[in-house]
Amino acid sequence: MTITPPALSVFETLESEVRSYCRSWPAVFDRAHGSRMYDEDGHTYLDFFAGAGALNYGHNNPVLKRALLDYLERDGVTHGLDMATTAKRAFLETFQDVVLRPRDLPYKVMFPGPTGTNAVEAALKLARKAKGRESVVSFTNAFHGMSLGSLAVTGNAFKRAGAGIPLVHGTPMPFDNYFEGRVPDFLWFERLLEDQGSGLNTPAAVIVETVQGEGGINVARPEWLRALAALCERRDMLLIVDDIQMGCGRTGAFFSFEEAGITPDIVTLSKSIGGYGMPMSLTLFKPELDLWEPGEHNGTFRGNNPAFVTAAAALNAYWTDGQMEKQTLARGEQVAQALRAIGAEHPELGAQYRGRGLVWGLEFTDRTRASAVAARAFELGLLIETSGPESEVVKLLPALTITPEDLDEGLRILARAVRETA
Amino acid sequence: MTITPPALSVFETLESEVRSYCRSWPAVFDRAHGSRMYDEDGHTYLDFFAGAGALNYGHNNPVLKRALLDYLERDGVTHGLDMATTAKRAFLETFQDVVLRPRDLPYKVMFPGPTGTNAVEAALKLARKAKGRESVVSFTNAFHGMSLGSLAVTGNAFKRAGAGIPLVHGTPMPFDNYFEGRVPDFLWFERLLEDQGSGLNTPAAVIVETVQGEGGINVARPEWLRALAALCERRDMLLIVDDIQMGCGRTGAFFSFEEAGITPDIVTLSKSIGGYGMPMSLTLFKPELDLWEPGEHNGTFRGNNPAFVTAAAALNAYWTDGQMEKQTLARGEQVAQALRAIGAEHPELGAQYRGRGLVWGLEFTDRTRASAVAARAFELGLLIETSGPESEVVKLLPALTITPEDLDEGLRILARAVRETA
Amino acid sequence: MTITPPALSVFETLESEVRSYCRSWPAVFDRAHGSRMYDEDGHTYLDFFAGAGALNYGHNNPVLKRALLDYLERDGVTHGLDMATTAKRAFLETFQDVVLRPRDLPYKVMFPGPTGTNAVEAALKLARKAKGRESVVSFTNAFHGMSLGSLAVTGNAFKRAGAGIPLVHGTPMPFDNYFEGRVPDFLWFERLLEDQGSGLNTPAAVIVETVQGEGGINVARPEWLRALAALCERRDMLLIVDDIQMGCGRTGAFFSFEEAGITPDIVTLSKSIGGYGMPMSLTLFKPELDLWEPGEHNGTFRGNNPAFVTAAAALNAYWTDGQMEKQTLARGEQVAQALRAIGAEHPELGAQYRGRGLVWGLEFTDRTRASAVAARAFELGLLIETSGPESEVVKLLPALTITPEDLDEGLRILARAVRETA
Amino acid sequence: MTITPPALSVFETLESEVRSYCRSWPAVFDRAHGSRMYDEDGHTYLDFFAGAGALNYGHNNPVLKRALLDYLERDGVTHGLDMATTAKRAFLETFQDVVLRPRDLPYKVMFPGPTGTNAVEAALKLARKAKGRESVVSFTNAFHGMSLGSLAVTGNAFKRAGAGIPLVHGTPMPFDNYFEGRVPDFLWFERLLEDQGSGLNTPAAVIVETVQGEGGINVARPEWLRALAALCERRDMLLIVDDIQMGCGRTGAFFSFEEAGITPDIVTLSKSIGGYGMPMSLTLFKPELDLWEPGEHNGTFRGNNPAFVTAAAALNAYWTDGQMEKQTLARGEQVAQALRAIGAEHPELGAQYRGRGLVWGLEFTDRTRASAVAARAFELGLLIETSGPESEVVKLLPALTITPEDLDEGLRILARAVRETA
């Protein structure tokens, strides 16, 4: 595929320098459907990024689209602050029936403002309020958002520097496998907690991702997560699972922590919870933590009702049985095989792959290779991103609804991009 | 109108205690159009709150609705991260042609995540980065948002307490008329700045609302704003106008600061910028402040393309000439007359009213009266809110597109509610 | 007097650039007695600085010297940590009998480490612990010390910048007469406290000097101090009087707040409490505030027993009757007359003087004049310092024990220095 | 020895509850000489605590006493702020000739206020200023002082809680042997530094004690210190050695870091630097770090000239040759033998001992035993303290000038106390 450099002028002259993805993918996109995006020059792209995990059901999923158009056409409430609406009730009831009850999860549901970082801010506030302590433990290479509360528990030095103030009240601990097995799990964390002279401010909570997406597709083992949950309980710290990117089925089960069999105290959801890529987020917590006063945390767009409509439609369409989970695990196996083959084809690259469900990472010995591969993949019509502190990992995040054929096509392009970036 | 208590069960059992508006307005809303909302029991409400200013063009405005439906039907990109899209380009070009150029405003445009607090967080980060200082001055009774950065410059003690950590790096100064003319404007602020022994950490920026909506409809005079802008320039502080609630025509002109003839260094927009009540926000700044590195501030829902579509449609429909501004000022005069009449009818209430454009406040000597009035208004079919630190001010925030007849009807209900809450 | 530049070599080559007084007074001092210091070249200086108020009883006061030598000769405990010693008991009993009981002051006595800043750190810790809040209000141009807790409530921008971290948890309020009568006292402070939307973090305490020595000899009126004490009580804030420089008789009475008739919750003493210029400090507080756990605040040199000996000797020698207070007020009147005469002699200088007891300041229209006067005074054999944020005030701080003749001589040198710096 | 409960009344009624040592040692001490203290009831105590290391030359050492008395008698300057004095010059020259030059140490000398915590505050300020970063790394079980800057890098949870504000800008790392060899040295620290996604704020400096006295007599190996110094250099962090308790010969050499062959960027000294137990402290740093502006850090008692006199006398008496170091190591060997014998006598106690020079710790399996031993030792006439986060270590800190006979006597009392606390 030959791509003519698009006319980016207004983006270049008017939009801030902060823009990023449009630099890696210099096209002007116009339409999208399922796993395909189309630019204004008629090029088609296979999307292995899926809105950074916000499009688990693909672009403009027809089932959700129908529900959305119907709602808009009949003048359903679009903007409802946190007023009770029929759309919100339908979502809440569906979420309870399809998600919470079958999993025996006791959570209360909070609408904290429709972005991930807002869900994290609400989670951190609540944890601090509940425990009366300021400190929160996060993990190396964590990513939780860009507002000051979330940024303080995010690992990336470049993003942290943007704060313009010292980020405090957070302490990083080693994520699973940070020392590649050389150090027993939680040795450092537990010792700091038990030693009255350690200097660690007693944490109100621990915030963790089960798979670190931005951090380089670092996968926590179920036993590590269980040990963490046990440590939190033993030491009176709340466990917050940030499931914004890994929830909504990305790893197979609806919640990514289900496999480990743990019940976090607080859970954040965003990205794909709305189903159609529209802003929505939730903070879930055990009922005894529902210590909020009315209006203590608010936000204008908490009641993004069109997203409630597509959210409920997505739950009804995909989560009333175990089909979606099975399919995701099967597609994941397909990815794993392809990545294994890439490694086998190029033993000199020292390629390592890792993942769960439909989130996978591919790392090379040469830390600049991932970016080259992604750039070549774009030229070949595949949208694929890198992650990790040095962008050293190719990150595969296709829609969960991708067909085996599309998945195969994308994996073949990836293999070719690896081959052609020697 | 008699209202049967609605079946709120799932809201009460599943949704967090943090919910607020649904408590004042115990109805389950189903549809909305223009200045009317309809609950599932068939009651109609006249809306004088307009999504806290997010619905300046009314609920489900038909012009915007058409554009939105067309876009969705043709599978325009819904979720685009910060990729270049045709919808985003159309918005940027329209914003430039309709808003920035005619006003000779040189701003660069940043999409910081689609909520107001995210726009404020980006503004504060940028100001701190640009000046290399941490401290930001805000004003008494300011409201800027709920994430930690924004909350630190928000005045409300109840909301601040929710942070769970000490909120620092901000210092409040008296807003216009805080001492009812007893103290010269900026006497305290300027003295602190010029006195090398004052103990004030030199601010990177000042953040201000031209009219404090949440703070009690406190209206800054143009000359006060000009003096503030001059002070900022003289003392090397950036001036941030948070125009999230007062921008997009709420006070008459598109930007609320136009009347004062100032050009802030940074401006935040959200709420009505999307036009249709869908999440969207912008941070605008002078080109020399565009110091962001690519991706230094990001967020999943920056590219809420359906909102870009309705945003562009709204600008094209309402802001290509001076009609909207004129109309808003005329409607505002209508409100002022009605409030004046309410005061005259009940001299014993000591009613004070104040406002600009279509944002007005009505305050009584008895500080509990406003809540009683709003409650009675709801029973009479009018949605109206209170504001101020003690909810002591009735706040009028109708859609800018409200008809004179609807406006009159609402004002008559308000007058009746005042009468009936003796 | 002609002064040969002294051999400062080791000071210049080995001592840090941070040294300060030795720059204004380029002599190498060898001996001292009463109000006189002698350098190694045989020059004599009249001392109007008295160790920044640490030498209220003059240099090497013979009464205290005798007590000290006796103690050292008999091998009394020199260093006692916070062990009980006979010297400490004698001091405590004397302090109780001579200072606390006659004034009906109920304070408990803490030995917090022998420097002023340590006494302030202990006071702030205790106030925060007692109230469970972080914030402390200080005043414009306050000076409380150089360690991080004290520095955060100190006004001077230059000294604050030395912290290397943002100084937070403190908010400055205008000291008495900051606006020269244009603004009612405490208007701003009280309004911030009563307004639930003001953005002020509720303070645990207020820390104040009755006369700001470093800040420019700013004298708080008794009625202002009484209003402050009343405000603190009304608003549940602890009142801390930092009497480190103004206590021990500097303003006449033993405590500088006695004149106002207030009883602060916490008082800090240092500088002259040891009597002989040796490090010692105290933090006093009402018994109900004695919430310390054993050892919760400690320090190696809390038990500087030689200072306890001279401290007790000073109290016994000077404070068992009202003689010292009367004499200080009389000497103060002598100073006031001389300053008045200087002003009258040079009407063009716009000289303003202010003070209480034996602390006085002289300010000129030309803000550089004070430094010139002090420099000329040194050449004429008078040690005198400047203060204020721009060193714009000549500061008179002679020993309380100075003879009328020495005082007169110094005042004549001062007048000459003013005359000769035109 | 039978001890009559002393009359502690004024201590109990007037002194704050914060007092600590006087609770363990309920005697009223009157005189002291060498390694003996005498209470007012005629009891004699052998002192194995030596003012927490402030009395390395014993109580009221006659050589220093003579110099002090001479100085006081001839009216040498007692209190000199930071003016140049002959006493200060003599100290500086002696310090240069006896301490710095022979060791080829290039340090500038700062007098930061005469307590240890003030020296640490100055060191931290300077490091932050030099590097333009806020964060400082400290170690588990570190002790650096009680003012807010020092407390933030101190490990003890009980003392940290006294701050009343969240202590931030510090991060603890594991001290040597924290994991008893299970984890490679600096694995965690170095990984955090090299990983751009670790979440560690880049430190300006690392502050360390070579032997943690308060923390439980934890002895860092020379190779660990060398690796730390190398890490600091490699990663552009300043190395601060807090030698307040371990310097001045406590471990053998004058500076405790000499054995490791490293040259820290900044060194703090206090406690025994004055020689006679009078308040004095120093902050030393490499000349290129002397970035202070004149007066940027100050303090009233920086010029405690009597302490300069005894400090110079001590250096001249004990440090002009290698005698003191040799003797300390020999005495240390005597201690080690005795502790070994105690362990051998009671194999069931699992006693562990550790130390260097004349600082030793003895730990038992039963963590309450140390306090019992110290209490019994007091009854037997030996002053000995415990340390460690749970006071689980008996701490031996005799004067360096103790005679072999006195040392032997004390060690025998200790052995007896162990025996009698079964």
TrEMBL record, chains A, B, C, D:
Top class in the EC scheme: transferase
Pathway info: Amine and polyamine biosynthesis; ectoine biosynthesis; L-ectoine from L-aspartate 4-semialdehyde: step 1/3
Naturally occurring in which organism (per UniProt): Streptomyces blastmyceticus
PANTHER family tied to this protein: DIAMINOBUTYRATE--2-OXOGLUTARATE AMINOTRANSFERASE (PTHR43552), DIAMINOBUTYRATE--2-OXOGLUTARATE TRANSAMINASE (PTHR43552:SF2)
Keyword set includes Transferase: yes
Protein family: Belongs to the class-III pyridoxal-phosphate-dependent aminotransferase family.
Keywords in alphabetical order: Aminotransferase, Pyridoxal phosphate, Transferase
Name by which UniProt lists this protein: Diaminobutyrate--2-oxoglutarate transaminase
PROSITE patterns: AA_TRANSFER_CLASS_3
